[in-house]
Amino acid sequence: xxxxxxxxxxxxxxxxxxxxxxxxxxxxxxxxxxxxxxxxxxxxxxxxxxxxxxxxxxxxxxxxxxxxxxxxxxxxxxxxxxxxxxxxxxxxxxxxxxxxxxxxxxxxxxxxxxxxxxxxxxxxxxxxxxxxxxxxxxxxxxxxxxxxxxxxxxxxxxxxxxxxxxxxxxxxxxxxxxxxxxxxxxxxxxxxxxxxxxxxxxxxxxxxxxxxxxxxxxxxx
Length: 221
Description:
- There is one protein chain.
- Helix 5 packs antiparallel against helix 6 and helix 6 runs antiparallel to helix 9 (168-177).
- The longest helix has 32 residues, at 188-219.
- By secondary structure, the chain is mainly α.
- The chain has eleven helices and no strands.
- The protein is 81% helix and 0% strand.
- It is globular, with a radius of gyration of 19 Å.
- The model has no long low-confidence stretch (mean pLDDT 83).
């Protein structure tokens, strides 16, 4: 309910050219840094509290590893970040959830079944990663013909992706990134609709962000 529209809106607004120019660093952060965080947190927690199984400790590391897109957006407004830092942080936060979610799923599976297969984990990650991106692009191309359903697009994309067992998060991000590519129609009606769309998304993002942080504050104690 919260992640899909917020990530979709963030992906629509991100600087696509700068994102592509820094793709190597962003991917290394989104995948490599998340895996490193999982390993460090997992081994450290298991060392400090041996009663916690290593698989459970890895699951906690997977939950903590990915940076939050909402927090990054908020940070960029308050901290003095340069343009490249903003691009790297926003780009990483858009795609690192996939590596975190897959790692979390396999850590839980290892905890409950007592077995772990690196080959299965790698295969699942590749399918989830590239399958999500591909499905997101296909959905964006189809839903581009239904401009009036734009607000519902991230929900449709996310639910379809989860149904076919690929990354719903990456599917939504791919749909958001390709939004401008598939929506090239021009004309006075389209221009007016885009102005209204921008205003609607600003209000929607503000409301969802507010609800998320209120819920976080309620649960924190």
